[in-house]
Each structure stands twice: as C-alpha cells, then as structure tokens.
Amino acid sequence: MQTLNVDLGDRSYPIHIGPALLDRDDLIRPHITGRQVMIVTNDTVAPLYRQQLETTLARIEGLEVITLILPDGEAYKNLQHLERIWTGLLEARFSRTATLIALGGGVIGDMTGFAAATYQRGIPFIQIPTTLLSQVDSSVGGKTGVNHPLGKNMIGAFHQPQLVLADTDTLSTLPQRELSAGMAEVIKYGLLGDLEFLSWLEAHMEALMARDATLLTEAILQSCACKARLVAEDEREGGVRALLNLGHTFGHAIETEMGYGCWLHGEAVGSGMYLATVASQRMGWLDQADVLRVATLLERAHLPTHPPENMTPKAFLKHMAVDKKNIDGHLRLVLLKPLGQAVLTTAMPQAELEQMLTTECQSGQALS
Amino acid sequence: MQTLNVDLGDRSYPIHIGPALLDRDDLIRPHITGRQVMIVTNDTVAPLYRQQLETTLARIEGLEVITLILPDGEAYKNLQHLERIWTGLLEARFSRTATLIALGGGVIGDMTGFAAATYQRGIPFIQIPTTLLSQVDSSVGGKTGVNHPLGKNMIGAFHQPQLVLADTDTLSTLPQRELSAGMAEVIKYGLLGDLEFLSWLEAHMEALMARDATLLTEAILQSCACKARLVAEDEREGGVRALLNLGHTFGHAIETEMGYGCWLHGEAVGSGMYLATVASQRMGWLDQADVLRVATLLERAHLPTHPPENMTPKAFLKHMAVDKKNIDGHLRLVLLKPLGQAVLTTAMPQAELEQMLTTECQSGQALS
C-alpha cells in the first residue's frame, strides 16, 4: 500500500493506494466520528463490492450502516438522483455527524460528495473509487456536483473527503473501455506537467492496458501526486488548477452535445486533449511531431482522437461558451506550450478556433 | 449609516445599516468584480424596490443586470424554486465571475445564497435584506439553503456574502405581522446573551413596534453585533453558534407540522422561545417570574407564546428528532441558565419534555 497525503491545512486527508483496501477497517475507523454511515453506490458496483465493504464496516462497533443504490451512469448524475440521497438521509433520520461513503466511479463520487457538502450544510464523506478514472482523478481535489440540462457539472461545491481508499483490486472488474477512459486522465498528467512521466507511459502503455498491477499502482500514485500538487497550490481554482482542465473544455462540449453517457467522460477528454494539441500546434506552440506523439499514445490506450462523426464546429462553440473558465464572455482554453507544460490562455482567435474545429470535425469518428 | 464588520478572515464582509442605502452605488461597486449581475427577488418586493435597485446598478458602468422574480413565501423555499435560479443563470450564460444580489427577506436570502454557493461551485453574492427578520438575523452567519419536504433547512451550505446592505427605509412597507416576527429574533439576542439589551428592549418595545427609526437602527445593530460575535467565534457551528438556535428547535417543529408559511418563522420562534423558557424553568434554571417576564415581552411584540392549538406533543417530538443539533439520536436543546445566558444541553429527560409539551399544548393558541 502506498499513501499520499493531500495537504490542505485543516482539510488535509490521506489517499491510500493498493490491493485489498476494501477489507481494511483499520484504515476507515479513524475517519468515522459519528455512528451513522450511508454507503452510496450504483447497480453495477453493488453486486461486486457492496457486501465486502459492509462486512468491513460491521467490524467497527456500534455503526448503523445503510446502503443506497443508484442507477449506473453519467445520465443519472442529476438533481433528481441527488435528491434521492438527501431523502434517504432524512428518512433514516441521519444527523450532522453521519458519514457518507461513495463506493463507485466518478459519478458516484461527485454526487455523494455534493450530497455530503449540502446535507445539513455539510457532513463528512469518504471516497472509495472503483474505476481508474476516479482513482486517478475525481478522488483528488474536492470538486463535487451534478450536471444540469444546460451544462455539465454546473451545480456543485468544493468539499474535501476525510479519506480516499483506492483499492486496485477493484480494477480487475473494470470493462476495457472504462480502463481506456481512465487512462486518458493518466496521460493528461504526462502532457500537462511531466514529460518524464509521459515518456514512462510511452514505455509501458501496453503493459498498463494489460492491467499490470504494479505499473497501475505507480501510474495512479504519480497522477494523484501531480493533481494533489496543483490542488494544494490552488484549492479554489483561481489559477494553476485550471490547467487540470486540459482537454476538458472540448471534452465537455462533446459530452453535452452527444448527451451524457454516450461517450464516456475519459473518451471525450481523450478527443479533447487531441484537439487541444492540434490547437496548440495552430498557435505555433507545438510541432507536427508532437501532435503525432500525442495521437499515437492516445491510440495505444484505445482512445478516440477526432470528435464524434456527427459533431459540428457550431455545437462545439455553443457548449464551450458556457465553460466555467470563461471570464465575462471571453473563451479561455488550456493549451500546451510546449509539450509537458500547460497554459491557460485567451490568445486563440475565435476564427482560428472555428477553422480548426471545421477541419477536425470533417474527420469525425465513431466509437467501435 | 452604521457599519459593522463581520470578521471571518478572508471571508470578512461589512454590514451597512441605515436609510436610503438602496441608492448607494458607491457602497455596492467595490464588491462586484465581474460584469454580470442577477438580482433575485420576489413578487412582493419587486414592485416596491426592484426599480430603485436597478437604477442604482445602472450607474455602475458596463454591468449586465438581469432580475429573477420568485413567488413570495416560505412555501417556495424549495428545490424547485432553487432550480429556477440555477437555470436562469445558465440561460443567461453567466460565468463564475457573476454576482447574485438577494433583494428580499430571509427566504430570498437563503435561496439566493445557496444558489451562489453551488452555481459553478460557488460565486459571490450580496444580501439586501428588506425585512426586520432578515436584517437582524439571516444576513449574518453565512447560512444558506432550502427546505426539504422532510425537514426545514435540511439542504444548504455555509457561504458568506461580499456585503450586506440593511436599508431601514424598506421596513416602512413591512406588514405589522412581519415586524413582530422580526422582533422575535431581536428579543432572542437579549435572552441568550445580553440582559442589558433585554432591559433596553423592555424599555422601548412599544416605540420599536411603532417603527421609531433610530431605535430600530440601534436594535438591528445590537442584534447583528451579537450574532456576528458568536459567528466569528464559531463559523461552522461546532459550538457556541448553536446557542443562536434558542427557540428554533421547538419553532422548526411548529413550522414543519403546520406546513411552512402558515405561522411565520419569527412567530414559531416566539412560541419556541417561550417553550424553551418553560423548559428551563422545569429544569430549575429559571423561576416563574422569569417565565412571566419573557411571556410579557413577547406579547408586547404581538408574538404568540403557546403552540398552535392543533399541535400535539407527539408532533413536536417527531419533528425535533431530526433537528441538526442532535448527536447520534440524542436530542439537544438550547435552554436558558439563567435568563440572559443560553446553554446547549442534553440534560432534559425525555419524559420531562413530553410532560411539559403536554401541558403547553393544552393551552395552544390560534393566531389572530
């Protein structure tokens, strides 16, 4: 087991990474202060890991544990399903000392975290991410929230967990497509801030995709450490933290246009990172070899590069206009300058962006 | 104009109290950082003060100002109406630098504050409270939120405003019943922490109820100062801040049972404070003369003392079981020990509480 401490003053918390962590009541016990616990999970994860977690919690004396199972998928990351968590807590008469445990991927983590942020104005929660995506990404940073019909992650709060348990054993049941989606975020950390890590990924991508346990643990640790460094510098996302959105501005536009859950978040981010790379080349900040290098690595992780085949430049621009990074109507993008270093910029002319999107949308792709 | 600074480190903000503040663009200007402003108000307040505020904001160069009008009343302090604020912000494509302005009473303030706390994970907001209740109470402390069918204020967040403008001119249009409701919270500050202020209120209650402007300004200032002291000590409500809930545990039970909006919040708190006083006497912490003194002052403010005539002890206990102050199922009450000093206690036996509620419910009263 490896442990990373996320340093946020009195909101600091540990991330434990390794096998068989779901059995470790000794790791969970110190982070539960009340007597009431609600596990929030989904109907895919519950049959796999619910009982194991409940058995572990049963070893902590005097706990009242209830479990709420939501339908699986980004399509359910909305206010209606958030309400089910709030209502479940109230029906069980859970007080402000209750703890929520998110057992699942990023959707469960974001929704459970937001429910915890807002139930009785804030209660503690624990993240047990069961996908590569959520282990490397959404378990660090305290971002919680739900989607709104008019935009992704538009309703939410910053709320830090008490503890993150990234049990690598849970990746054994992850579908291949979701492994790829998680790998998109891993690749992101190489692209935005660590050329050495990017080279390490290029050396090991096939072994990683074959789920080599030791390599995956290392990749998760490096990704979390990179994200934790940026978050510690900028908890409320005024500055460097926005760099973590590399690929996400384009990616969110894809998700919004296609309907949440059609392309996986990581797939949309994969394509979004490719588009950000092409945009960076247009700005003269990368050369053709860099673009090829990024495209090749994404393809080795079985990720899309080009946008969905029926996506138009107009659709991109419409959705990108409501991105949270925008200031007073000015579109801000995270681009690469050079490879291995991300910048937040308003320098790209709208016409240039449109032209680039027009070219890329012409070679749009369907997911296999 | 009087100014009180609420000291909360980098979340500190000023409260300005006095006449004609709605005209003061010089006071508002420094607290708006972006270019987009949404005024949230209700259909009672909008005809009275919307235009005045819009005219003031029009003097700030380059602002895009939109106004959202919600129906007036506690019955609309729910998720459905909160969603209208979120949707309005998204439809207007407001970014994370937009500012919300709450123009109205406590319901508008709580809902607007919560919308600000959660829109794109948090944007700034300004409180312009137009009722005595919200001027003395809900504009201080950063509590925001909405009701849930299973409990009052169960969904919310702590989010501090940039600025509070308490324009005493707006009290001229306040219905008498709402003036009384606000006075309940004013009296609360005398009861829970300041015997001298309690005596001052006893000396001036008729003049206050006749809306003597100078006396009202003083009462608002003293109340805000008392609350600000407690909040500064305990922003997240772990300790002394809970004392501010004097009368609220019983009061919330009344509101929940009767349906929100039947008794005004302040009326329920008035009765709740009387019940807390009687409970304190039962504990031997107050004598009969204290109870009479509290009842007399409440009556001079035209506030109810006894619970609603159709309210049962069972209904009280049911609703009090979900109070946020409870710890692991133990009921916690704010009582007086002695007059002028509040304590948070689990010392009252359940049987004693039931007996007291049975006696008091027998002399339940209807509002005139």
Automatic annotation (TrEMBL), chains A, B:
Biological process (GO), any one: aromatic amino acid family biosynthetic process
Organism for this UniProt entry: Terasakiispira papahanaumokuakeensis
Full protein name: 3-dehydroquinate synthase
CC terms in the record's Gene Ontology section: cytoplasm
Main localization (coarse): cytoplasm
Principal EC category: lyase
Residues binding NAD(+), per UniProt: 72-77, 106-110, 130-131, 143, 152, 170-173
Pfam families: DHQ_synthase, DHQS_C
Cell compartment(s), UniProt: Cytoplasm
Annotated 3-dehydroquinate synthase N-terminal domain residues: 68-180
Record has Amino-acid biosynthesis as a keyword: yes
Family: Belongs to the sugar phosphate cyclases superfamily. Dehydroquinate synthase family.
EC number: 4.2.3.4
